[in-house]
Amino acid sequence: MAYLERRRNLWYAVLTVPADVREKLGKLRFVQSLGTPLKNTAEREAAPLIAKLKAQIAEARGNANALTEEALRWQRHLDLQTQSAKGGSIPRSATHHQEQENRRQARRKLALYP
User: Within a 10 A sphere around the Cβ of 75, how many other Cβ atoms?
Assistant: First the structure.
């Protein structure tokens, strides 16, 4: 994932702030420790954080509904993944359970990064 950087055995989520909103946000880059030495865990942890940071950038550009739109985009992505899984060999109950768990995790991640 392009938004990951490893420092001292831990992974960080890193997002460069576009030049047009740097002054408004007061940052050149967003950097947040993901608190894990494992890359696959860091990738999962970074995804909702990066989505929220991108929504902040969009809001700084004047899109007041950026976070809601990003959440809906993630919801559509999860729905597509669920539909894809239903066509595969995953039993329906496992797919439903995984879909619910993915949604819970996404909500928790968004709540962790206000």
Answer: 12
